[in-house]
Design brief:
This protein has about 625 residues and is of the alpha/beta class. Helices cover about 40% and strands about 15% of the residues. α3 packs across α6 and α14 crosses α16.
Length: about 625
Amino acid sequence: MKMVVEIAKDLVDRLVKWSTMASWIAGLALIASGCATPIGVHHVDRSVAYHSLTANVLSAEKPSSFSARELMNLNLYQRFEEDPVKALAELHAGLARQGDEDRVFALAELSFFHANNTGDRSYYLASAVYAYAFLFPGKHGTPPERIDPRLRWAADIYNQSLTQAAKSADGAYAIPMGGTFRLPFGELSVTFEEKDLIWAGYRLKNFIPAADVEVRGLRNRYRTPGIGATLAASIEPVEAATSKQYEYIPARLKVPVTAFLRLDDPRGALKSGKLSGKLEFYSPDSVRSLKVNSVEVPIEFETTSALALTLEGSPVWDFEIAGFRSGDFTIGAQRLGLYMLHPHQTGRIPVVLVHGTASSPARWAELVNELENDPRFWANYEIWLFIYNTGNPIAYSGMLLRDALAKAVAELDPEGKDPGLKQMVVIGHSQGGLLTKMTVIDSGTHLWPFTVPPEELTVSAETRELVTHALIFKPLPFVKRVVFIATPHGGSYQALGFLGRLGSWFVNLPGRFVKMNVELLTLQTKGLVLGTAGGIPTSITNMTPGNPFIKNLASVPIADGVVAHSIIAVDSDGPLKEGGDGVVKYVSAHIDGVASEKVVRSSHSVQGNPETIQEVKRILIEHAKGLSVRQGASVSN
């Protein structure tokens, strides 16, 4: 018996030792293999961790951790992968009649995910409804906190869902309309008013979702964060339109528009499946925010895509050379060459942009894109564009600019009560700067090339009227500030030599100048022309250094009460007096008496340079501040 006990004790001791050894071996093996415990952490790069926390259906094409957690807690995760329709139906059926914000957000995101995978537009519409109910629950819930990431995600999901839900079977954005639309859990009745699609005497049509286009050629793409589906719309005239200003809107313009589906108590109606709402449309010209449940909410706008769509394939690019070569070349039914990107609003100050030689208003696109997206600008200003045939005599083009501006002001403000139209700013690049100067000078007879006054010219009445109107004029009283950009006040050295002669040779002056040219040559033979005219000059001739026209124009001072600024391009780091931009030398662009002179290290096409744009913004803010001081208003920095 004793022996048996000892054998048993020895066996137990051996087992204990083997057990301890096995534990150590297992522990060593665990350490050696790097295996994790059932619960623990795994250290990752900070960017990986951030991505896992912020990934959502829009950024990563998979549901966020918030929605995945909701599925897990309701034991629906596997079901959603296998049968998303049933999982969404069960998730919806379990909604409480009030609150339940986590589930509402999950339904918005998961419905969008399912719609993306299947193309079923009813789930896009459901996603928009859920997202709206999450953002604006009203009395039946609590809106998300401002720092809750789901606030912005839900807004983006609403915006994208509304865009996708409105597309037709062929992928195009459908014509806006009301009616009853199917939802996976019920139906949505929508009202819509046609008047929402009337803009500046035009009807909006052919909507293109901004989310569906990629912008090229512009430095920055701007989106004003807010609520709504961002679109770009084409325009067609409304037969009953009587407004004068709609005629200044270019026919190919694409207008930034935002669609907003306003829902009536969606959180309270989700359980019943019977929802109602109204489809609304807004443009940046009309309003920048709207009220939902008495809360002011910014509207999402995207103007950059509308600008790029306007310029895509536009004939304005063809005009640059054709308009230089032919003085009669036009784009459609021009209205004295003046165009507006928005309907004029009383009190807004026009900023008129005048392009240079062999160019067009399209070359202002970078500046327009930056100004249109700066609240300090659109709170006070609006953009006008002037287009002209750049091979024509500068005096003639200057006359057209003055006439176009005077006519627009008279038509838009016949009673002279609009304060904005009395504080116009004109900005000209290159030759456009010379035209700009001709809006703010009293020419007297400085530009008059004849030895006798107008009434003694032995020419036709039409010729006498034209040359007098083009060469003897007063400053426009409503132009209060001008900006010269790379302007050849002393002429352009590119106008000299072979290239200049070749350029002039290519220019075909307007047909109305044929008879005038004969009369001018006749006057020259009679000794009534100062110098040697040699016929009607082109703009290249006018800009040749030493040409009487450019010298006389440079000698005329800017009118009192007008503030002038210079932005001069220099493409080298050497002394300014020896520098230039490849077309205009610094000494030609520099003039005395300006309020400011900014030198930008750039080639001649400096109007889109970031430094130029910042300087233009500074000047415009300064102009608006000066007005606010006189008028008792305020302008923020």
